[in-house]
Amino acid sequence: MADERDVELRRAQPWLGTLVDIAAAGPASIDLEAAIAAALEAIARVHRTLSAYDDASELVRVNRTASRAPQRTSPLLREVLACALDVAAHSDGAFDPTVGGTLAAWGFLPGRGKCAPSPTWRDVFIDGDEVHFARPLALDFDGIAKGYAVDRAIAVLVAAGATRACVNAGGDLRVFGPRAETVVVRTGGAQPARFPLVTMSDAAVATSGYAGQRRCVDRRYATPLVEPRRRLPVMSTRTVSVIAPTCMLADALTKVVALRGPRAAATLRHYGACATMLSPARGAWRVTRVPRMPERLAA
Question: What distance in Å separates the CA atoms of residue 254 and residue 115, rounded to the nearest whole number?
């Protein structure tokens, strides 16, 4: 329960292709309405900066020009890119932010120019406030930006004096404060189900599923999950949830687990994370934990 002196407020807006829900509590001495508005604006800023669909976004500009000359970038873009490259390095490329050209060729993203064949994260360089590509490629932050936006919203609420908050962006969720929240996972597929995942406080969780996102490309089904080395679509039916210290990390690591399954254990341990995979099996759901996930997480 919130302190009797606390004020509680909840607001939601559509951003990042989903509905972002923010619930927060704090003392009556702070302007909680203004704090939540500022948190939503922080999410909107991530959306505007990293959108692959907006010609005016910084991401589109960098993708268009960074192979020709180093491009000065915002701290926001560099922070997300630095995390993406770090996860790529520690997952042996299972997470690779340079799959944007492949996703555009499959129709999942807008096509904005020709990319070199099979670029990798090793073709991307950060030097101070500049970013440079070794060859033409397209960064895609769909697998990490939503988690980062959740983290930024939590940071704004904490700075404003909130004592408790929960930010949920379509399954990417972070909890702050003394009260634990029970996270329930909703699976996709023909027989969706709900599973209580974990009860947590001061932690983040992200969930990804691809069964409902497939489309036909060159007479075969494709999903937005790409096997980076061969640039082939992966028809995963898993619903993957990752708990990590930040939502940005949890978001990126869901792709590593979706691709590597139990072999992702070492990468998860490196980041202090754990995962649950839900897989359809003979009309039921098989649960796999990598490594073993506790039933309750608390600070």
Answer: 26
Quick check: 99 and 231 in contact, CB under 8 A?
A: yes
Is the CB of residue 254 less than 8 Å from the CB of residue 276?
A: no
* Number of Cα atoms under 13 Å in the Cβ half of residue 103: 25
Considering the entire predicted model, what is its pTM? Answer: 0.90
Domains and CATH numbers, the chain: 53-133 (1.10.3980.10), 180-279 (no CATH)
Q: Do residues 185 and 240 touch, judged by C-beta distance below 8 A? A: no
Predicted local confidence at residue 188, as pLDDT = 63
* Polymer length in residues for the chain: 299
How many C-beta atoms surround the C-beta of residue 78 within 10 A?
A: 16
pLDDT in tens, 10-37: 999 999 989 999 999 999 999 999 999 9
Q: Tell me, what's the pLDDT at 1?
A: 39
Q: Provide long-range contacts, Cβ within 8 A and 24+ apart, for 224-233.
A: 224/103, 224/108, 224/142, 225/255, 225/258, 225/259, 226/96, 226/99, 226/102, 226/103, 227/259, 228/93, 228/94, 228/95, 228/96, 228/98, 228/99, 228/120, 229/93, 231/99, 231/102, 231/118, 233/106
Here the tokens at position 255 are 């792709």
Cα Rg, the chain, nearest whole Å: 19
% of the chain at pLDDT higher than 70: 92
At 43, the amino acid letter reads I
What six digits make up the tokens of 289?
């934990």
Rounded to the nearest integer, the mean pLDDT of the chain is: 89
